Amino acid sequence: MSSRLPPAFSKHLKGRPAPKAELPRVNPLSRAQADDMLLRQALELQQAKRLSEAEELCHRVLARTPNHPLSLYILGTLGLGFDDELAIQYLARAVGQAPQNPHFHLSLGEAYLTVGDSFLAMKHLQRACELKPDLVEALCGLGRAYVSSDKAAMALPLYEKALKINSIHPMVRTGLANALTSLGRMDDARACLKEAIERRVELGAAYNGLVNTRKFAEEPPELASILSELADPKLAANAAQQLHHAAGKVLNDLQRYEEAMDHFQKAKTAAGHDFDLESHRRSVDSIIEIFNPSMLETKAGYGSPSTVPVFVLGMPRSGTTLTEQICASHPDAHGAGELTKLRRIANSMGFRTQSDEAFRSSVMSMTRDQSRTLAEDYLCYLRQHAPAALRIVDKMPHNFELIGLIGILFPNARIIHCRRDAIDNCLSCFVLNFNKEHSYNADLQTLGLYYREYHRLMQHWHKVFPGRIFESRYETLVADQDTQSRRLIHHLGLPWDEACLRFFDKDGSVNTLSRWQVRQPIYRTSVKRWKNYESSIQPLIQSLGDLAET
To answer: Most buried of 153, 421, 425, 518 (most Cβ within 10 A)?
Structure first.
């Protein structure tokens, strides 16, 4: 699917009427046949990436047969990646019209997983498994939902069942290894990934997962295998991206930094991501202009007085997972992971889905009752994770863009901003295999300039919310874990508990790219790591400018 929204779908999103088409005159007996013919064509067009034409045919069917389940289903699948919320609405309508169709439940469940709603995802994926017990995609989807909701142990029998049904399905072994890694069972995960490699199933993902289960002091035989795979001229771009990241990770462990950076750079090229920095700057300008002191003063007393939410945010790789683990080790706190719920609320108001002006209008016109409804919607979702916890941590890093909305909806929520040496932070982002949602990570110069915009926005939040944002500096935390951990727990308004010093012993799964590190006691080897790469990262250092602490 292309990254641009199909023109017809774009019109539909903007509230314009669906494309009109001349409908053939058919008698009632042939209407169903005509619908089926059009939808078969729509599926063929979708497979050919002719998405606008596929959408138009679906709307032609709906114009004649409202709530046609397959038409709604195809529209839902067309919308994924463009407007996930609207896509979910279509898929939910399809499920409502054909509740016994396991594939409809599967797609709706996967869509909920995409937007981070693991609870609703589980509901529909479980139903898909009930309707079709041998549907491997549903078993694996449910497994992913369990892993994402801190229930990785429940995923294991699902993947084992899927293995018996189809041992070479690309989702199964890598999914099982992911669940095992989340549980800290690194040896079992390695065995699973090695078997996937032997069977040549999802080689890129398998190698990338394998090398991230441990740190290498000596060159492993896998490095030669990875380099051999990369020599294949027919290698797909996605596999090349994964394999280059895998090679870079091993070479970094071996302190062969120039070779490692060469592979990280090639991984970015293979990914093919680009980022509109000027558009992003305008967006930051708009956020700063919207959430000004006078506007925020008019919203005083809005939202919910709840003290349950805790927002741990900052740039990715700034210590957010470590900070969450320390907080969540307290018996009265729970770590809910990286939740997309706040972003979905913001998107419903036009953030990133409509124009900056539309978002401004939604914020400015928000009533006290509307703010309470939005806050309660978020709190209800949060409570599903831990009904009895006094504090629940949402550690979505990019919520730093939404601190203004947090301030309105949750005036008593704790906000923890994780900071790290700018060069170290950006380098740590660059060497990881982030998805296209982090396309600012496409090259070193763009990454540095993006960091400057993040820093500019955070400066604004500190001005308009003085004293509300707790700064957790990574270097300070690893240098004096005891003192900084006590400061964190005090900020949460909770009594000190010694368990917070042994966060790495905490039960449960960890579902971020930091999951290997946070199972270890605090270490300091990542501080000033960038000096190993100094000669290779000058574009990053130059674009950071005065933020680079050299």
So the answer is: 425
